[in-house]
Write the structure tokens for this entry.
Amino acid sequence: MAYLLVQQVAEAVQDSSTVSEVESVSQLDILFQGGWIIIPIFLLSILAVYLLIDRLRTIQRASADRNEIMAKIRDFVSAGNIDGAGAYCDVQQKPITRILKHGLERLGRPISEIQDAVNSAGKHEAFLLETRTDLLATIAGIAPMLGFLGTVTGMIKAFQTIQNLQGSVNPGVLAGGIWEALVSTAAGLTVGIIAFFFYNFILNRIRRLVNDMEQSATEFIDMLQTPAPAPRSSHEESF
């Protein structure tokens, strides 16, 4: 009796290990069931990760305390130390300071020329921040389309199987085409959704930086147009 019980337990353990092994193999091989369309989707996912890391690093390097920078520039300009203000901008190496340096280099010229130089530098810095960001939006659009293409090819394969067997088929025979259709669609949608989310996240961060640059440029021009306070006369000082 005890021997039979031990034998049944051993068989149950063996069956469970076999089932778990089959499940693990299926999980490892599930992506390969999507057919050849999985390859470009996988390459797009790698490109999306690279673009995300690249843009996040660029945004991190471009971030700066706008109020602190403007306070430093205002102190230098008020003291007449234009060279010191330019050197400070060179040390900081931020989009805001590069924009302000274009204005500092043109001090003494008409204010309209200084404003044009600052605006032009701002547009260039905004372009650098947005470089390659549109590729994330492209990936967000292409990946689901590739997934749907895999769905179409998978269904074509399934119907070809039905035609070849003249309709006498069972679900097991159609499994290959169905797997290709479902897996490719899921993979494409997953990559597309993630890419679209991070595209909007990065675009929002860039818009904040561009807004800071525009405010800094406007504040810089206003600072140049603000007249210096007139010195107090000795008669006023006596009172």
